[in-house]
Amino acid sequence: xxxxxxVLAALAAVLAGCGGSTSGTGAAxxxxxxxxxxxxxxxxxxxxxxxxxxxxxDERGHWVVxxxxxxxxxxxxxxIAGHFNNALRTREGEAAGLRVLTISVDPxxxxxRAVREYVHQRRLVPGYRYLIGTRAELEPVWRDYHIAVLPGxxxxxxxxTTSLLIDPQGRGRLLWSxxxxxxxxxxxxxxxxxxxxxxxx
Length: 201
What we know:
Blueprint: H1 2-12, E1 33-40, E2 45-47, E3 53-55, E4 64-69, H2 76-88, H3 91-95, E5 99-104, H4 112-121, E6 128-131, H5 135-144, E7 149-151, E8 157-159, E9 163-166, E10 171-176, H6 182-200
């Protein structure tokens, strides 16, 4: 599973620091890169902006986006967060029971206070959880999801910006690259939900 996810992640988005972007093409009708076959996603437990412990397994029964950002990023990270926050408010997002779990790549500066302020300023909806922890807690999650985290210029962080869509059974289904838009998320969710409906009929 991990080798397949690593290869697809490399194809979808290599590394992006703040101020950079990557582009990708969708597989078949999907705009993201489909994982075929779907792959089990590694479990993790971290703390959200409200101080609550959140595990990936808590979200079974929902479609879940997992991505990796940091609060002080001036452009790329807030754009990604904004597009997924918008997707949560759509009819397709609601139909999917969509959740977003953003995991910090900056344990030193992504403090509980900084993250709470970020969530408030960006008007992130309740379905959006920003997860933090110590470096010792976060590094194993970065490894499991093949996220590279490197120091960048002027205090920035260069990191993998792939967003992974996980299905209600806990399987990775789709990867979006840095330049994902709200419309891409809505489009792909609608297709996947329609596929599931057809399979059960």
